[in-house]
Amino acid sequence: MTRRSFLLLWLVLAGLKLVLAWGLPLFGDEAFYWWESRWPAWAYSDLPPLTAWLIALGTQVPGGEIAVRWPFLLLGLLLPWQVVWLARRSHGGEVAWRAGILALSVPLAFATGVLALPDAVMASLTVAAAHLLLRAAQDPGRAAPWLLLGGVLALGLLCHYRFAAVPLVIALAVPALSWGRRALRTPWPWLAALLALLALLPVWWLDAAHDYAGLRFQFVDRHPWRFQWNGLLQPLEQALVAGPVMLALLAAVVWQRGRGAAGPSDRLLAILAGGVWILFVALGFFADSERFRWHWPFPAYLLAMPLLAAHWPVLGARVRSLAAATSMVLVALVAGYFLAGMAPRWQTGLFDGKRFPANFAGWREVAAWQRAQDTAGDSLLVVDNFMLAAAITYYLQPEWRDGVRVLDDPLNARHGRAAQLSIWGLDEAALAAQPPRPGWLLVEETARRFSDRWPWYQSLCSRFAGLRLDGVLDLYGGRKRFVRFRHQGYAPQAGCTQPDALPPLGWVDGGQQRLRRGEPLLVEGWVVQAGQGIGAVELLLEDEPVASAPRTLPAAWAIQTWGDPGDPAGEMLGFRLVLDTSDLPRGRHSYRVIAHRPDGLEWPIHSGWLEVE
């Protein structure tokens, strides 16, 4: 019965993962890993090479995004089976199938393998390493498990620097166990360690040739290396990764089985799981807190699943039901988040700005927008950050023959990609070294904070000759916005000499509004436009114009923040739009605010919802 339940649950979740891997647009980091796969190397500035190598293998089979992802999807689908095999070796058949079911109920386990990210590889290799250690424990003097372990650890180190936690915990665990001390008297553990370390040689060799860019990013630049109080939030984060009740049960069983009274297999798994978890959680108090780090301890839960599965029958029925229910609810939420990434309408309706899946959204649309404007695909295209560059390169290929150049941007350095762009000769320094050439400039406005946008646009104007505003692609209610320019070549100059090339920037107070029928809709805000100013601001309800107003109200924030933007209106940048809702039917209505430049260009400022009761 347990085996049948595992197979049924695995098939259901596998089918859902296949749908997601087939239909989701590329995640931003996935797109960059795909880009790296087009430039074969022994290492890259952000990662060792195994992720790019697997993507290169996957794309030998045509098929869109699924071709990028299928090697990782296979590993993600194999992962519960690996837990089953691990539990069978440590506890026997019935416990094995139960461990597989518990592994399927971990929310992050469902996400693993849907995307072409290193986590699927690291999780699979971590479970494989534990399995080989269990084999070594049964016969410490046997060579094969140790040498295979060395190969597995070598692959892990070729996948991500973070995998180093696994051999480190193994190196601490083996001498702590009696069978491990016996094994250390043989050459095999030492040969395994040597084999694992050999994987670092090509990474070190390429890193040394480029000022140790990868090591500096992973171990120095991205981490503050000082105590951070927000590390105290990690138990709450991990409750979402594993399920709150499941996390408590896993912690209890690892603590219990990690003590000396447990059998050798239980104690080994408890030490490995507890060691990996403690190491990553401790690291979280001092390391990078700007990026998503919830997934770091995830392999520890897989290692602990055989222990929890063996202990499961003695738990109360209520506790078991609560643990399974809370975890599966979180699995459903993870699946729903990914499904929303496939449906633009869901993205707009379900997510606010902070939760919006921005790294999935807009890549297909902006590529189609650019392709429609330049069907030949032989113009020079310059973009503002690595993520847009990688995604649009993927979705424009193969017809886009000349490739993409990338401007210097803090986002590039913050994600460890600036050095890689320099190695490829696709960064701004390489662009400056070439003769000026006309082409396109495409930027992602929403990739930076609103307060940073005006000086950033001015810097673009000062870097390109003949800059001319070409259009805007406003997606998902303004949550994603791309702005396109024509230019006559990269030619840095002192200051912005063509202010009309800069797009309008505006702000509207409020978003969704709920009103009684007959109560007026009031929309207030401001908009600034260098050079020619703004002719009028217009309110559109369901894409039909319903109100218009000039800018007649003071709005000092822009000038206080950005200085004089060169708008003829001075400080009178504000507007007020009023709509009588007496004739509107009850229900939800969408509205937009657009600005009209004197040259006829219409520019979206804001999108929102009006609920008439």
Describe what you observe in this structure.
With 613 residues, the chain is an alpha+beta fold. It has three domains: 2-196 and 221-338, no CATH class; 363-500; 506-612, Immunoglobulin-like, CATH 2.60.40.10. The protein is 51% helix and 14% strand. The chain has 26 helices and 15 strands. The strands form four sheets. The chain has a five-stranded mixed β-sheet, covered by helices on one side. It has a five-stranded mixed β-sheet with strand order 9-15-14-11-12, with no helix packed on it. Helix 21 links the parallel strand 1 (380-383) and strand 2. Helix 5 crosses helix 17, helix 14 (234-242) packs across helix 15 and helix 15 crosses helix 16. The longest helix has 27 residues, at 65-91. The radius of gyration is 28 Å and the shape is globular. The mean pLDDT is 88.
- Indicate the proportion of strand residues: 5-15%
C-alpha-based Rg, rounded:
28 Å
The order of strands across the largest sheet is: 2-1-3-6-5
Helical fraction: 40-55%
Q: How many beta-strand segments?
A: 15
Question: Alpha-carbon distance between the termini?
Answer: 53 Å
Look at the structure and give the mean pLDDT: 88
How would the global form be characterised?
globular
Uncertain regions spanning at least 5 consecutive residues: none
Helix count from the secondary structure assignment: 26
Largest sheet: 5 strands, mixed
Class from helix and strand fractions: alpha+beta
Tally of individual domains: 3
